[in-house]
Design goal:
Elements lengths: L7 H8 L14 H7 L8 H18 L37 H8 L5 E2 L2 E2 L3 E7 L4 H4 L6 H9 L1 E7 L5 H10 L20 H7 L4 E5 L11 E2 L3 E2 L16 E3 L13 E5 L11 H11 L1 H8 L3 E7 L14 E8 L6 E3 L3 E2 H11 L20
Parallel strand pairs: 3-9, 3-10, 4-12, 4-13, 5-8, 5-9
Antiparallel strand pairs: 1-2, 4-11, 6-7, 10-11
Helix pairs in contact: 1-3, 7-11
Length: 373
C-alpha cells in the first residue's frame, strides 16, 4: 500500500523559512493533493484555496511568523507555481537585513527616540542657585521663567540631591558626588566617569560655559566677575582638556556651532545666589531665550534647573524641592511631569538621548518621558 503523503501542517512547520517566513515552492497539484488527502469529499477549487490559505496562516503562526510576513500563493500556472504577493504579482527576493552599521546610523538620526527620549542635536543645561520651587514658580518674581515653563514642560517634583552646592553639580555631571560634602576648593578627580568623557567616547562633544570666569581653561577657585569654581564640575575632572572649560563670553551666537551638550552657569549674582530671583529671571530672558527660540526649530533642548533650594544648611540627605524646566524641540507645551526626579534623573535623560549608559547613581534612574511629542 502506498504511503500517505505527510500532512500539510508538517510540511509547513518543518520547511517554512524561519527568517523570511516564506514556505517552499510546490510543484503543480501538490497543494491540491495534500489538501485532498485530508478531505473526505470534493470541494470547489476556490473553497479549497481559501481553506488551504487559512491552514497556511495557522501553521506559520506555529513557526513564529507574524501575520502578513509570509508570501501567499498565487493561482498556479501550467508549468510553475511562483511565490507571489497578495496582489498576484511575483514577489521580489527578500530585502537583505540592514547591517549593524546601518542600524546604528538609523538610530542616530536627529530627533529619533532613544530609550523614549528624542535624540537632540544640541542640549544646553543652565543651572541657577539656592531657590526652591515655590520661590520661582508662581508668585510673580520670575515672569520669564514661568512663561518658559508654560512654553515647555515643568517638572513639578524635582529635587537636589544634597546640601551644599558643590556635590550637586558633581552629581548632575558625573552621577556621583565623589565623596565631596562641602564647597571646599580645589577638587581634582581622576578618571573618565563624567559626562564630558562619556560624550567624547561616543564621538560627541561637550563644553561648559561659566560666566565671570577669567579665561578659558582657568583652574582657580574664584576671581573674575563673581566666578566660583564650586559651581563648575567639569574643571574638577583632570582627564578633560582645558578647552572644554570656557567662559560664557565664548557661548556662540551661531547656535548651530554649539557642542552636543553644554552647561551654562551664570555668575554668583545672575544665578540668584547673591542677587534676587528677578535678577536671575532677567538674565535668563536676555541670555537663554535666543537659544530656546532657535532650538525649537533646530532639534535643540534647553534644561533649566537649580542646584538646591534655599535651605543651604539643611540635611545632606536632600537638596530640597527645586524647579526644573525642559523647553525646545519635541517638548509638549504646557506639559507637567509629576514623577520624582533629581539631578541623577536629569543626567540619565541626557545620556538616554544619545544611547549612553547611566553613570553612577544615574544608572538607577529612569529618563524623563511622557513630555515628548
Amino acid at each position: 500500500m502506498e504511503a500517505a503523503p505527510p500532512p500539510l501542517w508538517f510540511l509547513l512547520v518543518t520547511q517554512a523559512d524561519p527568517i523570511t517566513c516564506d514556505y517552499p515552492t510546490v510543484v503543480p497539484g501538490t497543494r491540491e493533493a495534500m489538501l485532498n488527502g485530508m478531505m473526505r469529499q470534493p470541494v470547489r477549487a476556490r473553497s479549497r484555496r481559501a481553506l488551504c490559505d487559512a491552514l497556511v496562516a495557522a501553521c506559520l503562526a506555529l513557526t513564529g511568523c507574524a501575520a502578513g510576513q509570509h508570501t501567499t500563493w498565487a493561482d498556479p500556472a501550467p508549468s510553475e507555481v511562483p511565490l507571489a504577493s497578495a496582489s498576484g504579482s511575483a514577489s521580489p527576493s527578500p530585502s537583505p537585513s540592514p547591517s549593524p552599521s546601518a542600524s546604528r546610523s538609523a538610530s542616530a538620526a536627529p530627533g529619533a527616540a532613544t530609550g523614549g527620549v528624542p535624540r537632540f542635536d544640541h542640549i544646553v543645561i543652565a543651572v541657577f542657585e539656592n531657590h526652591g520651587y515655590d520661590q520661582v514658580i508662581g508668585g510673580g518674581k520670575a515672569p520669564y521663567l514661568n512663561q518658559l515653563a508654560n512654553r515647555g514642560a515643568l517638572l513639578t517634583n524635582s529635587h537636589g540631591v544634597t546640601h551644599p552646592s558643590q556635590p550637586n553639580y558633581l552629581a548632575m555631571f558625573s552621577g556621583s558626588a565623589h565623596g565631596v560634602s562641602d564647597d571646599s576648593c580645589p577638587r581634582d578627580i581622576a578618571g573618565t566617569a563624567n559626562l564630558g568623557s562619556q560624550l567624547a567616547a561616543a564621538g560627541l562633544t561637550f563644553a561648559g560655559y561659566s560666566e565671570g570666569m577669567p579665561s578659558t581653561g582657568y583652574r582657580g577657585c574664584g576671581g573674575g566677575d563673581r566666578y566660583a569654581r564650586k559651581h563648575n564640575a567639569w574643571v574638577d575632572f583632570t582627564v578633560l582638556p582645558a578647552s572644554v572649560n570656557r567662559t560664557f563670553a565664548d557661548f556662540p551666537a551661531d547656535h548651530a556651532s554649539l557642542p552636543t551638550v553644554s552647561f551654562v552657569v551664570p555668575n554668583l549674582c545672575n544665578d540668584m545666589h547673591d542677587c534676587s530671583v528677578s535678577t536671575g529671571d532677567s538674565w535668563a530672558q536676555a541670555n537663554l531665550d535666543p537659544y530656546v527660540r532657535w532650538a525649537a526649530g533646530h532639534n535643540g533642548l534647553l534644561i533649566v534647573t537649580w542646584d538646591e533650594d534655599e535651605n543651604t544648611g539643611g540635611s545632606p540627605a536632600s537638596g530640597g524641592h527645586i524647579p526644573t524646566i525642559f523647553a525646545g524641540a519635541h517638548v509638549t507645551p504646557g506639559s507637567r511631569y509629576t514623577a520624582t526626579v533629581d539631578h541623577y534623573g536629569v543626567l540619565r535623560t541626557v545620556e538616554a538621548a544619545y544611547g549612553l549608559p547611566g553613570l553612577g547613581a544615574a544608572g538607577s534612574r529612569r529618563p524623563v518621558t511622557g513630555i515628548w511629542r
